[in-house]
Amino acid sequence: MASKTLTEILLVDFRWIVVVLFLLPVSFLYNLFYSVRSKIIFKLHSAPRSHDAKVAGIQKQVRKWKESGGKTKMCTARPGWQTMSFRKPMYKKTSYQINCNLVDVLDVDTKRKVVRVEPLVSMGQLSETLAPLGWTIPIVPELDDLTVGGLVMGTGVESSSHIYGLFQHICLSYELVLADGSVVKCSENENSDLFYAVPWSYGTLGLLTAVEIMIIPATKYIRLHYEPVAGLQNVVDKFESACRDTKKNKYVEGLLYTLDEAVIMTGEMVEDSEVEPDKVNDISKWYKPWFFVHVRDILKKREKTYEYDIVPFGNNIIFRYLFGWLLPVKVSLLKLTQTETVKKLYENNHIIQDLLVPTSTMKKCCEEFDRLVNVYPVWLCPFLLPNNPGMLQPAKGMTSDLYVDIGVYGVPKGRRFQPVETTRAVEDLVEQSKGFQMLYADTYRTREEFRRMFDHGLYDKMRKKYNCEGAFPEVYDKVNKNVRD
């Protein structure tokens, strides 16, 4: 075997050095630059004026593609390393790439309770814009780098989703450039068939250029209640009960630390006058322990638990004081500096999946995931799935149904873990449970199996209606494992 170069040794054996000394500072400076830029653009109200020109530029590119004969299918020119998927999309190499530099918040209308944004606006950027105004969007997926476009074309869920549904359900309208270069707006009352088909379509019906999202008043504090629960059936019962009480519990989520131990968390917004000063816990401070560690301490477990991360000492108190203010490192930069060796290590020894199943199957799924992968902690996040047209629909005959996102992220401890076989077994279980798989993660479904899991009825009609078949790839051709590196 050939000896490793110094660069390979640093990027593989001592990756934490690269992360701490290079990627953390670069992430901080990158975020600082775009934060300042975003505030200036919003303050000057220049984004709405430039938006139409940017959309016209996209239309021009699409028409140029059409005039050239449209021999290859279109996709955005956004580099694969900037996406939140663990893998880089290979289809971009053979596609006609359209530059869509749409990164600004366009308008905040507090009378209509609506914010209008371009698709590359991130959750961090949106929160920084709305919070000083006293507003927030009802569902705020917790990773700051997640973009509105990714959450619309893919999906997003958070602890308020048992009331509001998935991210798509708080979106009021979409603006797209279609395959013929025209611009169309769709909502529940205008081009509603397209409106319901856009979520989960991964840019295969048109190029998203703007989104209107509902906003709600926000307070500075949330009162959070932690309840340790023992016994899996008790965990399921408590979780479902908390979700059903939407009047009291505006936020619900759980962390499962073993198959029989969990902490169920419920929360509500409170005014400053209701806050007990001695109970304030600013979990966002750089010197605070990671949240899952903070919650785990509530269980008062006696045995030692070991975690393995890119920065293995990241939760060390000294590291948090010295470098915590630089966290988190940008996922995109981790991908950009990822070597083939590191990629293979992750692929063969790591699992990242969000599995959306009815809460009626939650106990069985948790038991099976424990047997198949044995990864903890497991994130439990509820969401309401209304019976709307589109890719995702509740069981037949249901007007809506309560689902749970079972988030499994980490190194499987089971001796039988095999990336392909185990992931396929997990996917089979999800399909049998009438559930769905988040598509940012690896999916090994065949085309036929994929179409069984996701309802393509409306999607296929829209593909035909808007002449997408020769212009954009199908969803499956953008998300299956074979087209991701």
TrEMBL record:
Catalytic reaction annotation: lanosterol + NADPH + H(+) = 24,25-dihydrolanosterol + NADP(+); 5alpha-cholest-8-en-3beta-ol + NADP(+) = zymosterol + NADPH + H(+)
Example of a GO biological process term: cholesterol metabolic process
GO cellular component entries: endoplasmic reticulum membrane; Golgi membrane; peroxisome
Gene Ontology molecular function: Delta24-sterol reductase activity
EC number of this enzyme: 1.3.1.72
InterPro entries cross-referenced by the UniProt entry: Diminuto-like, FAD-bd_PCMH, FAD-bd_PCMH-like_sf, FAD-bd_PCMH_sub2, Oxid_FAD_bind_N
Compartment(s) where it occurs, according to its Swiss-Prot or TrEMBL record: Endoplasmic reticulum membrane; Golgi apparatus membrane; Peroxisome
Annotated TM spans: 14-33
Main location: endoplasmic reticulum
PROSITE patterns in the record: FAD_PCMH (PS51387)
Topological type in the membrane: Single-pass membrane protein
Annotated ranges, domain FAD-binding PCMH-type: 33-218
Keywords assigned by UniProt, alphabetized: Cholesterol metabolism, Endoplasmic reticulum, FAD, Flavoprotein, Golgi apparatus, Lipid biosynthesis, Lipid metabolism, Membrane, NADP, Oxidoreductase, Peroxisome, Signal, Steroid metabolism, Sterol metabolism, Transmembrane, Transmembrane helix
Cofactor: FAD
Pfam families: FAD_binding_4
Domain of life: Eukaryota
EC top class, as a word: oxidoreductase
Physiological role: Catalyzes the reduction of the delta-24 double bond of sterol intermediates during cholesterol biosynthesis. In addition to its cholesterol-synthesizing activity, can protect cells from oxidative stress by reducing caspase 3 activity during apoptosis induced by oxidative stress. Also protects against amyloid-beta peptide-induced apoptosis.
Assembly and interaction partners: Homodimer.
Protein name, entry field: Delta(24)-sterol reductase
Protein species of origin: Culex pipiens pipiens (Northern house mosquito)
Lineage: Eukaryota, Metazoa, Ecdysozoa, Arthropoda, Hexapoda
